[in-house]
TrEMBL record:
Record-annotated RsdA/BaiN/AoA(So)-like insert domain positions: 279-449
Highest taxon, organism lineage: Eukaryota
Protein name stated in the entry: FAD/NAD(P)-binding domain-containing protein
Organism of provenance: Vitis vinifera
Pfam families: HI0933_like, HI0933_like_1st
UniProt keyword annotations, A-Z: FAD, Flavoprotein
């Protein structure tokens, strides 16, 4: 049953989880506490759910901070077990990336009494750190209209035309960071960065907000399995990465914000979700052309590129992109290529990253204009060597002009007067339809994301709650969402985290009210 705002009502069975003092086992059998309130199994192996719940209660009383003396604190807990329900509820967030951290902070902001624990297997916010070449492209400041914004998501574009970004869009993100002390600037192309030009500003802000709001962050621990208990809670198995130990932690709410990690996908499937096969997005193209290496570093301000792949619907609009392009040592990069790689991610994967790239190097000129310009140039510069004089209207560098002449088999040392009009028409044709063989996928160091993950059809974008499992939420790259470069991927993470955190915070507050009434 769903409530009218799309948020599932809490499972009332959860109230059965307050243990009676008689259920407390002898002290020697009690598990040892961990910093987060996570617990090791006792000498009998797995803990009973009731006991997990009990340990949970003791943690709440201590605001999630270290409990040094299990004995003492457990008895304290038993004495206070009639406190309000809200303080007994816990959100566990799997993954301390952008989506998980933002979601945790938001949940704790809406419901300060909720225990919020993030389990992170590595270092928190590690992708934020390296993002945008170490500057962190937080969001995009030129796509404020949600319809235009949605167009920047090869996976997600249809679904994001709805309320998703209206609930927390780029302006809200920028305000949030500004309000929390991170001054931002918008560059000419719309990318938003911290004024400090350092991702550390973003990380410090988020870490300090987590500390202030008492979000508990546990690092070096992997959530390996998850199941549901009879009472409708989540039971998480957590393994430490460095030592051979296992802990179990119970949660009333769960956000899976595990990015593109396979373990995260596994957790989603354990809770009944399907996974759309993950494939890479945002990569450069390897091009088969021995002469291209000589052009390494050449940039084109504006080209139009069409990607032709076998078994793909002809003239698929997104496989044609206009914008800057860059020649690398072994192929092409730049916004046009990255956008093509994103829109064609799945087709490219299916084609083994092989296809034909047709590039128009003079996209603002009709082919007849290109021919006319060449003929006029021949008239005006008849006595100059072809290589030394390229029509300025084309805006091409000499190195690339030589490449074009070489490809046409023209000697650059001949004079313009000596070149036939037919040869010039061929040059015009090559400039408009220059074909390159794509032979593979390169590694683009600045940004890389994964297409695929939990299908959007399996969650409600109004709440980020699973349509399959009540109180389970997803945010960020774990979903079948990916954006092109320019801050769109982080925006997906901030928005998803914010909506999930808000939904959980409201549910936790409602639970408190229920208890009071
Ligand atoms: C090099 C690079 C640069 C980028 N630059 C930009 C940019 O400038 N702008 C932009 O918009 N996007 C950028 N991106 C994309 C952006 O980083 C991601 O879209 C974004 O980080 C996704 O956030 P997330 O929280 O969903 O996932 P992540 O940031 O991947 O966080 C997921 C976290 O979950 C943890 N985790 C996973 N499974 C488990 C588990 N089972 N137990 C415990 N922890 C787990 C992982 O260790 C990870 O820390 C860049 C990506 C890369 C790789």
């Amino acid at each position: 049953m769903k409530s009218t705002n799309g948020i599932s009502p809490r499972n009332d069975n959860s109230k059965l989880y307050c243990p009676h003092p008689h259920q407390i086992p002898p002290v020697n059998d009690l598990p040892v506490h961990e910093r987060s309130g996570a617990v090791y199994p006792n000498s009998r192996g797995f803990m009973s759910f009731t006991l997990v719940r009990f340990i949970h209660t003791s943690i709440s009383r201590n605001h999630g901070f270290p409990i040094m003396s299990p004995k003492k604190k457990l008895f304290t807990t038993a004495a206070t077990s009639t406190s309000p329900k809200s303080s007994e509820e816990r959100l566990v967030v799997v993954g301390g990336g952008a989506a998980g951290v933002y979601g945790a902070i938001r949940a704790k902001t809406v419901a300060p009494n909720l225990d919020v624990v993030i389990i992170e297997k590595g270092k928190p916010l590690s992708k934020v750190k390296i993002s945008g070449g170490g500057r962190c492209n937080v969001t995009n400041g030129h796509c404020l209209d949600k319809m235009i914004l949605a167009e920047h998501y090869p996976r997600g574009n249809k679904e994001f035309r709805g309320s998703f970004f209206s609930m927390h869009g780029p302006v809200d993100t920028m305000s949030w960071f500004s309000d929390h002390g991170v001054n931002l600037k918008t560059e000419d192309d719309g990318r938003v960065f911290p004024v400090s030009n350092s991702s550390s500003s973003v990380i410090e802000c988020l870490m300090s907000e987590m500390k202030k709001r008492r979000v508990l962050l546990q690092t070096g621990k992997v959530v390996t399995t998850v199941s549901t208990t009879v009472g409708g809670k989540f039971l998480l198995k957590i393994e430490k990465r460095t030592i051979n130990s296992v802990e179990y932690l119970e949660a009333d709410y769960l956000i899976i914000a595990s990015g593109s990690s396979r373990q995260g996908y596994t957790l989603a499937t354990q809770l009944g979700h399907s996974i759309i096969d993950p494939v890479p997005s945002l990569f450069t193209f390897k091009i088969e052309d021995p002469h291209l290496a000589e052009l390494s570093g050449v940039t084109f301000h504006k080209v139009k590129a069409n990607l032709k792949l076998e078994n793909v619907q002809k003239n698929k609009p997104q496989l044609s992109q206009v914008g800057p392009m860059l020649v690398t040592h072994w192929g092409f990069s730049g916004p046009v290529i990255l956008r093509l790689s994103a829109w064609g991610a799945r087709d490219l994967f299916n084609s083994g990253y092989r296809g034909i790239l047709l590039v128009d190097f003079t996209p603002d000129l009709h082919i007849e204009d290109v021919k006319t310009i060449l003929i006029q140039h021949k008239d005006h510069f008849a006595k100059q060597k072809v290589l030394n004089s390229c029509p300025s209207k084309f805006g091409l560098v000499k190195r690339f002009w030589k490449y074009i002449l070489d490809r046409e088999g023209l000697d650059g040392n001949i004079l313009w007067a000596s070149i036939s009009n037919n040869s010039l028409y061929s040059v015009a044709s090559l400039l408009k339809h220059c074909s390159f063989g794509v032979t593979g996928k390169g590694i683009f160091k600045d940004e890389f994301v994964t297409a695929g993950g939990v299908p959007l059809s399996e969650i409600s974008l109004n709440t980020m709650e699973s349509r399959i499992q009540s109180h389970l939420f997803f945010a960020g790259e774990v979903l079948n969402v990916d954006g092109v470069t320019g801050g769109f991927n982080f925006q997906n993470a901030w928005t998803g985290g914010y909506i999930a955190g808000t939904s959980i915070g409201k549910l936790a507050l409602d639970a408190t009210l229920e208890e009071v009434i």
